[in-house]
Amino acid sequence: MPEKLQTRCVITGGGPAGMMAGYLFARAHVPVVVLEKHADFFRDFRGDTIHPSTLELMYELGFLDEFLNQPHQEVRELRAVIDGHTVPLADFTKLPTRCKFIAFMPQWDFLNFLSTRAKEFPSFQLLMQHEVIDLTFDEQRVTGVRVKTPTGEVEIRADLIIGADGRHSIVQARAGLKRQEFGAPIDVLWMRVSKQQNDPKQSFGFFQQGKLLVLLDRGDYWQCGFVIPKGGFDEIKTRGLGQFQYDIVSFAGFLRNRVAELDDWSKIKLLTVQINRLRDWCRDRLLCIGDSAHAMSPAGGVGINLAIQDAVATANLLARKLRSGAVSVEDLRKVQARREWPTRLIQTMQVFIHRNLVTGQTSHRKNSLPIVFRLLKWFPVLRQIPARFIGIGPRPERFHSPSAE
Ligand SMILES: Cc1cc2nc3c(=O)[nH]c(=O)nc-3n(C[C@H](O)[C@H](O)[C@H](O)COP(=O)(O)OP(=O)(O)OC[C@H]3O[C@@H](n4cnc5c(N)ncnc54)[C@H](O)[C@@H]3O)c2cc1C
Predict the structure, then answer these.
(1) Which atom of ligand 1 lies at the shortest distance from residue 302's CA?
(2) DSSP state, 167?
(3) Helix or strand (DSSP H, E) at 181
(4) Helices 303-324 & 329-353 angle (0-180, nearest 10)
(5) How far, in Å, from the CA of 70 to the mean position of ligand 1?
(6) What is residue 278's predicted lDDT score, i.e. its pLDDT?
(7) What pTM value is reported for the model?
């Protein structure tokens, strides 16, 4: 028989959505257990963007300065190199936020920071190497989760089960929640190349004839994301590593003297991209948030912010009631009602970006900039629109959930 535990709220997944929700529930004195299947947060397939709206939340929580003491880069203007033209895409300096920049910080530092703060609350528990493998039911009502741990199986019962387990969510699947797929015509190849002193100083995006290479500065190496047509990895492999290295250099010439570090396909990981959304984000005693409710593409670099905003709305709407017992399905639906509209808007924008900017489905003449980029180049004021969309997003959340005092 598996060991049995009981708590008020169990959160599956220690990503941005799960850790922020866990922190906020604990801050509101709600007993909460966050389950993370990995042993640590050190995985390289994580985006590194901490958005101005998230930094605003850190300020409201009172730990912005401490957070920004950690190594990070502040990017005030996003630029891309498009078919050889450098184009400013977004200008964050006019945003109505305290931090007028995107902080690029390895996501494991962000998650470690949040978990350290959360552990200061006695009602918070983070269990690493705890993988949810199933839900438990009492007839139609979800009652808890079954968890695989290094020492055997555990069953954790809770008044509320939150799925924050990302785009391959088991919570969503086992709860039988129906998903709408919007199709993503791209996948991403994810790999590391070392950094050298004379390299450009900030993270970069290189577009070329509908293809895209993104370089994230991670201190002593570049995390490279190479966007490919969905299902195209086998063809790339058939063409061989030499050709692949050549492709990378054709985007970012300064990598020429070290692209040979990519000397084995095992160093190049395929990350599949999806865009989908649940029709219902909840059922009795269960709610999905973040990518578990709506898988986001990397396009625009907004999924992390959206996941965090979901977590804030969840705590705002549920924490007070959850302190004293279970919440109703009507309460859970309020979270979807609040967060579905911004999600729809961003996903529509991501589909547009896939179709028009990164897959080359809408062709443009070689060496001529698509009109969107030309407008951004000519009219600096227009750069405030993507800055707002990326940096803050539609319907930003503020904290209303009670604190632990
Ligand atoms: C290649 C790629 C690059 C991206 N880059 C960016 C970017 O730069 N900026 C940006 O804003 N967005 C980016 N995104 C989107 C972003 O990663 C997601 O939108 C965001 O991570 C969602 O956060 P989340 O907390 O909902 O889920 P996740 O970040 O996926 O976290 C889910 C967590 O749950 C854990 N988990 C999963 N299953 C279980 C289980 N059964 N039991 C226990 N734990 C489990 C996982 O280990 C993980 O820690 C990118 C997406 C892709 C595919």
Answers:
(1) 11
(2) G
(3) strand 179-181
(4) 180
(5) 22
(6) 98
(7) 0.93
